[in-house]
Design a protein that fits this description.
- Keywords: Aminopeptidase, Cytoplasm, Hydrolase, Protease, Signal.
- Helices cover 37% and strands 16% of the residues.
- With 483 residues, it is of the alpha/beta class.
- The protein has a domain at 14-222 and 391-469: Rossmann fold, CATH 3.40.50.
- It has a nine-stranded mixed β-sheet with strand order 1-2-3-5-4-6-7-10-11, with helices on both faces. Strands 8-9 form a two-stranded antiparallel sheet.
- A hairpin with a 6-residue loop joins strand 8 (270-275) and strand 9.
- The longest helix has 17 residues, at 227-243.
- The protein starts with a helix and ends in a 27-residue tail after the last helix.
């Protein structure tokens, strides 16, 4: 049996208008104090806000919503703060505070950053499934996931799971805004955070002065069908490799080498002995088709990690899986998702809208076929159900200045996703960053555009000249790390 955060990461690897006044009534349930967060030397603010687990029962069970506030470097301009809506679903915003502080340096020069752990993540009543003691990401494979794993996960979760949905998360976010005394805020949503951001725009448009949606998960497109988008991203990588002379010379048959590795793994996993990338000890390493594909897919999310994909494929073709093991080690030490919330939301808000025909079309691709479907099809049939009303799935039309950002080679939220939001929102602009992957907002070019937009609040009056200076993809051509 395997409950693996690393595996969950690999398989991925949003109105109550009268509620606004109710939010202010929650200020007596607010606690906030100076604190320090790992990775940040500067003193910040940490707080909790007590809210109802079920907003229809305000005097019932209460939960604490955890948040952090990173103060602006210069607060004299008194600009509206930026609230960060994390991805996933299942990412805790406060847990990545140090990363966000660095990535949003331009923005926080004049604005506070508000980081709220979505209910079900971080310190906001986390819905997490613990690792099985002794489980190793080197010997476990995705194909081993079964119903007992799911039941073990569910047994660890507490609370009324039907209340850990996107709409209640937005009620929490707006309650934090109100409790902190802000009439209006700006918001940045990345990945699933864009879905949350769109719901925020629908439920509490009066609370928002500007919105940034980075790598859009539109309400109209169900989360879960990643086969076609991953294949698109992978095929663009292959094409870019052939366009770069050094990559083409090093890996002239890269597409065929990938297909050969997959064919070898199709029937049986391969077991090799490697030197543990961190410990230096002999370690058994099991590679299956799904493990290989899911590991490659995770690299497609990042421009930096994409540079290694041709080398990893080529070395695997030669029978050397040490580079692949190195990626496993990196993922082993990276932050996991709160998988209880991930499945709770996707299984209930998205999967019921995916037809058999949609699954079939998504699997008709030359990269992973249906590899990204396994977890959903295993977990969701036995996950406790709740359903949101049909109004939740209607296109959002709020007239709020909105900047939409897409990375051209994104494997999970391709630019076509951003077109949905751009079409329905009356005051928006969609910019596409070439040779950029998932959530490129914090990149040097995009963050300058974001900062200008948050000040001007006019998506059609921005300096986008840096978009033409984004370099082409480059790739590692040898084990010594040359690019």
């Amino acid at each position: 049996m395997i409950i693996m955060r690393e595996y969950w990461k690999k398989i991925l690897t949003i109105g109550l208008l009268a509620y606004s006044s109710q939010s202010f009534a929650l200020t007596e349930k607010l606690t906030i104090e100076d604190c320090h967060i790992d990775g940040i030397k500067q003193q910040v603010k940490c707080g909790t806000l007590q809210v109802p687990e079920n907003y229809q029962q305000p005097n019932g069970t209460q939960i604490n919503i955890n948040f952090a506030v990173i103060p602006a470097i210069d607060r004299t301009q008194n600009k509206e703060p930026l609230m960060f809506l994390a991805g996933g679903p299942g990412q805790a915003a406060a847990e990545i505070a140090a990363t966000l502080r660095q990535g949003f340096t331009e923005v926080r020069k004049t604005r506070d950053l508000i980081l709220v752990d979505q209910r079900g993540t971080g310190k906001s009543h986390p819905l997490q499934c613990d690792e099985v003691e002794g489980n190793s990401p080197y010997t476990s494979i995705p194909e081993e996931l079964d119903l007992e794993d799911v039941k073990q996960c569910l047994a660890q979760l507490e609370g009324d799971l039907s209340q850990y949905n996107t709409e209640n998360a937005i009620r929490d976010f707006d309650a934090v805004r109100a409790a902190l005394g802000h009439e209006k805020i700006t918001i940045y949503g990345g990945s699933y955070g864009t879905r949350a951001g769109l719901v925020y725009m629908r439920m509490f448009p009066q609370s928002l002065s500007a919105v940034v949606l980075d790598s859009v998960g539109p309400i109209e497109v169900p989360i879960g069908t990643f086969g076609q988008s991953s294949a698109r991203s992978f095929n663009m990588l292959l094409a870019h490799c052939m366009e770069e002379e050094s990559c083409k010379q090093a890996y002239p048959d890269l597409a065929q080498e990938f297909a050969t590795v997959i064919e070898r793994l199709e029937e049986n996993p391969i077991t090799v002995t490697i030197t543990h990338p961190r410990l230096g000890t002999p370690t058994e390493f099991v590679i299956s088709r799904l493990k290989f594909i899911s590991t490659i897919r995770m690299q497609l999310y990042s421009v930096e990690m994409r540079t290694m994909v041709p080398l990893i494929i080529h070395q695997a073709f030669l029978g050397n899986f040490a580079p692949l093991a190195g990626l496993t080690a990196a993922q082993e030490s990276s932050m996991g998702m709160y998988v209880g919330l991930l499945f709770n939301i996707v299984c209930n808000e998205d999967l019921p809208r995916i037809s058999d025909e949609m699954w079939r079309k998504d699997a008709d691709n030359n990269f992973g076929q249906d590899a990204s479907h396994l977890a959903w099809k295993t977990v969701c049939p036995i996950w406790p159900q709740y359903r949101l009303g049909e109004s939740f799935y209607q296109a959002v039309t709020a007239d709020i200045p909105t900047l939409i950002i897409s990375g051209d080679v994104d494997p999970v939220t391709p630019p076509s996703n951003g077109d949905y939001a751009d079409k329905s929102l009356p005051n928006s602009k969609h910019i596409i960053l070439k040779n950029s992957a998932h959530t490129p907002g914090p990149s040097t070019c995009a963050i300058d555009i974001i900062d200008e937009f948050l000040t001007k609040k006019d998506p059609n009056d921005l300096d986008e000249s840096c978009l033409e200076k984004i370099p082409s993809e480059s790739f590692m051509t040898s084990l010594n790390g040359s690019i």
